[in-house]
Design a protein that fits this description.
The protein is an alpha/beta fold and 227 residues long. It starts with a strand and ends with a helix. It binds cytidine-5'-diphosphate. The site of cytidine-5'-diphosphate has 17 residues, from α1, α2, α4 and α8.
Amino acid sequence: MKKINIAIDGYSACGKSSTAKRVAQRLGYIYIDSGAMYRAVTLYLQQHLIDIDNLEGIAQALPQIQIDFRKAGEVFHTFLNGVDVEQEIRQPAVAAQVSEVAAMSNVRRMLVEQQQKMAAQKGVVMEGRDIGSVVMPDAELKFFMTADVDVRTKRRQDELLKKSGKLFPLEELKANLQHRDRIDSTREDSPLTRVPNAIEIDTTHITLEEQIQLICDKAMALIKQAD
Ligand code: CDP
């Protein structure tokens, strides 16, 4: 069967990761979480006490950063220089600075190049902010996900509680989502935008299963058509 590439972009915490992961599983495709890579770069800078205003320090650090995804049981985890950082990169301390780091052109250049290499093989479901516009402009199928900010905040709180056992205050999480949405949408280099050929999915009132099914149906129709 012919393989296609699927791009999923959208605001923070509107269900892109959970959806993309399961769509990839059902289609037998590779799932790539591009946000995890920006989070890993941010974690590296924090671990090495490199301030986000220290542009020279960041430029020198980038060649030292190696990010890959490795299988950990049934799922893939993000590895930073050979160390599993899947838990750490999801913490609010990383979320607090990741959009500032992701707005830097040299950081984006390095990560986009790696993402494009991963996508070259086809059969990839990649999610992020610039996937349909910059990383995979030729993707056969593109989606743009949105959801009400309060619903997204609650979902993120539940997700963090499940992953780390900590209950983070809703106000703090909401402020971070809004802060990141603003920086991600207004930065100069590859801002989050809905490309004209992306299908918009508002996930406020639909279930995860409905989101997954919608994307899988569209993908299967295209794959069959192409065969
Ligand atoms: O999980 P959540 O939706 O909160 O965010 P994420 O997908 O893990 O992405 C974290 C941050 O990385 C975003 O807020 C963006 O600043 C940045 N990012 C980006 O600039 N481009 C991408 N393709 C993916 C993420």
